[in-house]
Records
---
Amino acid sequence: MTADAPSPRDVLAQRLRDLLTSHQNVREVRMFGGLSFMVGDTMAVAAGRGGDLLVRTDPAAYDDMLRRGGEPAYMGNDRPMGRGWLTVPYERIQDNTALAYWVKVGIDSRKVSD
């Protein structure tokens, strides 16, 4: 990667901005080592340093989301974030249809507390 090339996080963040343009009350906040996208007052998704996507999910749907390609999310020293959070690896969100699916999961589940 050259000095002028955008980071994987920056590329993902721009793709997220493009997908979230139709939503109101979206703001960006740096947290979890990435760039989080808040819809209303709740984080829905975040662009991670390596281009992975952190997604809020309904804890009741967690196992189904794992079967659909999500992975358990970890914070810091391999501390699990719990059933309300998933990571979707960079490789699984390369096309916009896949990314849009996971963004919808995050938006739809942002009101569910974990």
Note: Residues 96-109 form the longest helix (14 residues).
---
Amino acid sequence: MDPVSLGLPHRDPFVFVDRVVDLQPGESARGEKVFSPDDPMFRGHFPGDPLVPGVILTEALAQMAGIAGGGDGRRFLLSAIRSMKFPSAARPTQIIALRARRTGAMGGLWMFDVSARVGEVVVAEGQVVLNEVTA
């Protein structure tokens, strides 16, 4: 499934979910991202040894959480990062599996456990809080 068609408000070049492979609206979502080695960020992070920046992995996971919470026209913005760890590195051309699962909600704030893996190796995990935007 295309993330933009599922309500992701971001557009190129700031879409960090290539496809959604499972969606339980309001509860959870799984998706994938593969970064091209030609992406300009790898010229500086790091020349000769490119790594996906942790902040980009965090944004990809926040986008995955927004997709999980979305549906029925709902839209979310990242409000807080409760914790985020990067126990291993992700590199260009690797398939990064993204997961987000809602763990709670209070008012317009939705909490998600998120993780990113390359194969069985965790490259990022933590909790994010999204704020539901009411137009």
Note: The chain is about 10% helix and 40% strand.
